[in-house]
Amino acid sequence: MDGHNLAGQRENNAVAQVIISFLKYEEYALKEVYSLRVKKWESISERQKGMIPNYTEYLANLKTSIQENAKFFKSVAEYAMQSIKIEPEEIVRPSDMDMSKTCSLLTQVYREWSAEAISERCCSHSRLIQFLRTVEPSKTDILIPGCGTGRLLVDLSQLGYNCEGNEYSYHMLLVSQYFLNAGLTQNQAIIYPFIHCFSHWKGNEDQLTPIKIPDIEADSLKKGMGSMSICAGSFVDCYGRNQGTKISSHYTFSKRMQMSRAKAENSKDVVITQFFIDTGPNILDYLDTIVHVLKPGGIWCNFGPLLYHFESDHGVETTYEVNPYSGFQDKINDSTPLMGLELSSDAIISIATNRLNFKLIQRESGILSGYGRYTGPESCAMPGYMCHFWVLKWTPSGEL
Amino acid sequence: MDGHNLAGQRENNAVAQVIISFLKYEEYALKEVYSLRVKKWESISERQKGMIPNYTEYLANLKTSIQENAKFFKSVAEYAMQSIKIEPEEIVRPSDMDMSKTCSLLTQVYREWSAEAISERCCSHSRLIQFLRTVEPSKTDILIPGCGTGRLLVDLSQLGYNCEGNEYSYHMLLVSQYFLNAGLTQNQAIIYPFIHCFSHWKGNEDQLTPIKIPDIEADSLKKGMGSMSICAGSFVDCYGRNQGTKISSHYTFSKRMQMSRAKAENSKDVVITQFFIDTGPNILDYLDTIVHVLKPGGIWCNFGPLLYHFESDHGVETTYEVNPYSGFQDKINDSTPLMGLELSSDAIISIATNRLNFKLIQRESGILSGYGRYTGPESCAMPGYMCHFWVLKWTPSGEL
Predict the structure, then answer these.
(1) Comparing C-alpha atoms, which of B172, B184, B298 is closest to residue B230?
(2) Which residue in chain B has the smallest CA separation from A384?
(3) Distance (Å, whole) CA B343 – CA B366
(4) Is A399 domain-assigned?
(5) What total of structural domains would you count in chain A?
(6) Domain-located, residue A182
(7) What's the CA gap between A25 and A100, in Å, rounded?
(8) For the segment B146-187, what is each residue's pLDDT rounded down to a tens digit?
(9) The complex's ipTM?
């Protein structure tokens, strides 16, 4: 088996592990979410049980909702299995992290593919589209790193833009493949996206709200005027600089990725980072990568909070520089903290304009946006995040 | 050493452990917060270092801020040490949880004792006080379970109400003792309450904002018209029913607590739960306890979110019933989940009115309240919680 096949096999195993986590959702959620609550209920005194007579009915509804979600995950898994031959002996059992990511996909699907979350999506889309109106769609190549389950890709390709998504998570990738290609009809499926959150509810029925998905006809994607594709992998690995970037868990030195990166240079008119820029352990690698893929005069639009994902992660990774000709490793740091470099928005804008030849076109701070928020009457769900929006133009030769 | 002294000794050890966690704050924060970020900075390439030339200055300011916070914790510890003789050989080393609680005290102190957080406090105080205006202060005994570092106690006793606080956390208790009794002058001390959060900042200087505390003259407490005291321990253990409550980590069967609970019965005119009702593993025990302490016609005011603290806690505890005469243990459940019984606000109100003889006086949902939120211009800090407010009157004989 050569290096490329080996990588392909590893990839297949990773995909298989996610597929298994979809198939095991029901077993996991019944055990970790439902059964523990039944046990708690059983443990209280008869007198206290009499105080909440409707609780058993609530628990029964919770169980049914889990089973309904399991149907959704099963159909995503079945669609995915058509594209990969799972070899059971090589399958790693899904970790708790895999299962937790599977559960949180429900929020992501709600956010991206329900009518109820339109106002949430509009919060960023309206700002992005207001800017995009100033450019000619058919001549505009857009890159969307962290494209999630693909909704923004669809919406922009429908407007005629040529869109390329990039996503690191196989959980997201398998779901996006399902929504983009499985030919779903409008409101074909039902999920219960809120059942994994037990706090903040005004009424039990709010938590148990069924949501129809998708809100748009999946088939309409095929009629999209712009092109659409998704590249799997880390943003920095797929699109970053070939020189001057330290090797890390998100950046490798394989021939295949070197070629991918060389091809990406100066290739995009617009990079849109939406709920993405805060996701990596080194935001400077993200900034370098954005510069690397933009054409001169290209645009970087950002919308989202600065909720640095590694802020509290006490893990470390090995980073080092490498000589592209000899492969010699230099400046090895085998315990680089994952936390750190949590830049403020002022700092990011300052680096972009003072060090990376960007010109600030537009900026807005403190935009409250829900994130998978239940929107029923008198909702007490967590309000969401205070988001930052900016538009920066890359002007390497001082042009405007 | 008899049982009471043994309990006293255990209590002293617990207090000592918290005091040590205050004294070790600087060492802990420099190691876990500051040094890891220095290490990350050192690990990036020279080229990337050149992109953020001000970062070393930022790190130096972060270090200074930690050292300033350490001065605050040192003075709280020194004041506390006057009240307890620490015997070093019995001191348990503070856990990571102890240290994490110490760091989060900065948020609590900011919330309760700074002028900057007035609008945050007013969000609940204004509603409570509007109701309290309808009763005669000198004839009103108020109980505030989960009184934190004591600010609401002070504010209400200044208005003439007789206030008793109750708090389970020694971290909180030592800080409340300091603010209530150490004779601090207005703006005497400075803390940097935001430095343990690295996300969401518009500018670095926002994170490094110094805050003067306290905003009120600590000595004015002595002139309070109402009485003021704080009882240490679990709400259910100190004030709960003596019969029909299952023994748990929050409810014991000692003679001392039985006497405390007997004394508490029908003793209060008002119970105020503020950011508290969601903190225990069995909210029904809280409801029982509120009923137990209220006089007929008494009032329960609640303000806060329903952010159930044990929602994601996979731990278990042992619970059982006990015969008060024989001490015989019955209905033992040695693996009661901590999670569970996360009631919606509708469910709580329904239990109160349909099962516990409360009458609903006032109710409001979806009140956005900051929680230790930085309030500077264009703040992008997390918005806070959607809070519930209700006033319920206990009418056991149908009286209004």
Answers:
(1) B172
(2) B383
(3) 16
(4) no
(5) 1
(6) yes
(7) 9
(8) 999 999 999 999 999 999 999 999 999 999 999 999 999 999
(9) 0.94
